[in-house]
Records
---
Amino acid sequence: MIKTISKSQIKEVAQEAYEVVKKENGGANANYIPYLANIDKDLFGVSICLMDGEIINIGDTTFKFGIESVSKVHTAILALKEYGADKILELIGADATGLPFNSIEAILLEKDHPSTPLVNAGAIVACSLVKPLGNSDEKWAAIVQNITDIAGSAPVLIDELYKSESDTNYNNRAIAWLLKNYDRIYDDPTMALDLYTRQCSLGITTEQLAISAATIANNGVNPVTHKNVFDASLTPPITSLIASVGFYEHTGDWMYTSGIPAKSGVGGGIMGVLPGLMGISTFAPPLDSAGNSVKAQAAVKYIINKLGINIFSATQVTIKE
Ligand code: GLN
C-alpha cells in the first residue's frame, strides 16, 4: 500500500490547519514561570521542513519563544552521540514515566535510573553527562553548538526567561539533589541543573524546530545545511524516546490521536518527527493541564490526520513535487 502526496497538498492543508485552529482559544500560558505568563497568547506559527530542505512557514514563524522541554531532545542526541545508545539506556533509560514532566515520585519509583532523558530528571542527568565533565562553560558551548547544528542556526538565550526560571525552579533543584542522593547524576548537580535551566531558556523559532525534527527524520543529516550532525543509527532511538514520552502523561492519547512522535515544551512549542518524510513544528503559548500547547497540538493533528501520514499506518507515503 503506497500513497503519494504532493508538496502543494501539504501547503494547502497546513494553511487550512492554521486558519481553523487560529480561532481556538482554550488553555492558558504557563504560570509557574513568570516570563512565560506574560507572552502574547495569540502568537501562533506552523512550520514544516521536508527532506529536500524546502520549508513551509505560516504565521508567527520568526518569533523566538522559549524552547523549554523540546531542548531535552537535542541534548539527548548529544548524550547519545557522546556515549552511544546502549550506555544511555543503562544510565538514563528509555521508558515512559506516565507521570508529569517534573515528577519527584517518578524518581522514587525507579530502582536504578531516571527512566528517560525527556523528563526533567533524565534531562538534568543528560546535562550532567555532557562532556567535558566539570567544565560548565565548555559543556554549555557543546550544548549550544549541538542545537545549532541540529536546527541549522543558533538559538539565542532569553536572559529574562533564564532569570525567571532560575529564580523559581525549586522543584527542579529538589530533583537534582535527589538524583545526587541516589548516585544517578554524573557531574555537579548545581551545574547540571543550571545547564538544564539555561538550555530551556533558549529562544527558538518554529522554523528552527521544524528543521531540527527534519534532521532527525533525515537520519542525522540537516536537510538545509547538509551537515551530517549525528549517525543515522541514532534516528530510531531518539524517535522512539519522543514517541514514548513526548507528551508526558498524555503521550498515549497523543500517539493514538495524532500518529506522529512529537515533543512539547511549556513555552508553547511542539516538534514532530516523521522519519523519511518531514519535520513539523507549531507554536502557541496557551497550554492544557499537562503543559502542552492547545493550538500547537490541534494544528499538528489536523495536518497529519488530513494528509493521512500516520506512522502506524500500513500505507507507505512518498512526497512528490
Ligand atoms: N523549564 C521547564 C521546567 O523544567 C520545562 C518544562 C516543560 O517544558 N515541560 O519546568
---
Amino acid sequence: MLIVQKYGGTSVGDVKRIRNVAKRVVDCFKSGNEVVVVVSAMAGQTDRLISLAHEISEDPDPREMDALLATGEQTSAALLAMAIKAMGYSATSLVAFQARILTDDAHGRARISEIDTKRIRKELKQGKIVIVAGFQGINHEGNITTLGRGGSDTTAVALAAALKADLCEIYTDVEGVFTADPRICPEAKKIDAISYDEMLELASLGAKVLQIRSVEFAQKYNVPIHVRSSFNHKEGTMVVEADAEMEKIVVRAVAHDKNQARITVRGVVDRPGIAAQIFEPLGQAGIVVDMIIQNTSEDGITDMTFTVPKVDFKKAMQLAKEAADKIGAKKVLGDEHIGKVSIVGVGMRSHSGVAAKMFQTLAQAGINILMISTSEIKISCVIDEKDVERAVKELHKAFIESE
Ligand code: ADP
Ligand code: ASP
Ligand code: MG
C-alpha cells in the first residue's frame, strides 16, 4: 500500500516525540508499505515565528512572512529524516520546491493548484521514506507560499490525492474527531466515522482538528482520511462518504470558534448597492465575511452587522470605516469579544425543531444570542466570548449526551 501519514505540531514537539514518530513511520514501512510523511512545525514554532515578525514590523511583508514561516516545517522534516536514518532506514526530506507543490500567489492563504509527483515517486522507488514539509508551496515565480494555519493537513490530503494513495492518516494529539472539542468538553465522545459534509462544516465552524481545505480535497478526490493519535495505537475516526446510518443521527457534534469578531455599520441609508459598497473592499482584501445580518429598515435607515476572523479585525474595521464614510453611514462599531457555537449533523435535513431546542438550551443557561445563521446541516449562534465554553457543554448535554 501507499500510505500518506501526517504528524501535527504536538506529535513532533520535541526530540523524544520526533523519535517516537520515526519509530511509527519505520513500523509502517517495515510492514511493506510505501510511506510519505508530512510534518508540521514543532509545537509553538509557527506562533513564535509570527511574533518575531511582529516585533520587527507591525505589518510584515507577506512574501517574507511565508519565507519565515516555512522554516518551521523545514526544520521538523529534516529532523525526522535524521531520526529515521539513525534507525538504519533511508529517508529524504523535501521542501515545497523539491516536492513540487505548486500554489497560487495568495501569500498566507495559498491554494494548491498542482503537485508534480515525479520526484517523490523516484525517491519511493529507491526504497526511501519520503518526508515532506507541510504547510508550504511555491508559486509560479518560485516564491515560497504558505497554506494558512493548519495547512499541513491540506498538504497531506493533496499529496494523497496526487499520489493516489490508499490511505491518508492524520496523526494528532487527540484520538480522533470528537462530538465536541475534548479539551473543553470532557464528556465528548470519539466518533468512529463521520461524513465529508459534516466534517467540512465542523472544520469551517472552528473544530481545528482538520483544516477545511483538506476536507474539500478529500471529498473531491475521494481520499479516505483516518484521524488518530500519535501517542497510542487506537483506531481513530474515519472521514468518508455519508451513509444511511449517519443520517439517523440528528446532531453529530458541537463546534465552537473564538476567533471571530463582529462589526456593525450603523445608520446606513437603505438603497440598492449599499451592501456591495461595504463588502466589496473586504472581499478584495481577501477577508472572509461569515455571518451577515441586515435589519429591516425604519425610515429608510438600517444597520448592517457581520463577522470576520479575529486576525482580520483591524483591517476590516478600517475598510468598513472607509466604506461608511463614502456611503454616509453614521458610525462603525466593533466587538472582538464574541464567539460562535454551532451544532452540526446531516440528520438535521430531515428533522424539525432542532433550532428551537438549541435556542431553548441557551436561554435556560442564561446565554444571550447575538446572531444566528443556519444551513441544511448546521445551526450557529454568535454569543459573548465568555459564554462559549458553557454553551458547548450545555449543547452537548442537550443534543448528544441525552440521545
Ligand atoms: P495538530 O497540531 O496535530 O494539527 P491541532 O491543534 O491543529 O493539531 O488540532 C487538534 C486539536 O483540535 C485538538 O487538540 C482539539 O483541542 C481540537 N479540536 C477542536 N474540536 C475538536 C473535535 N471536535 N474533535 C477533536 N479535536 C478537536
Ligand atoms: N505549522 C502550521 C500552523 O501552526 C501548519 C500546521 O501546523 O498545519 O498552523
Ligand atoms: Mg492542525
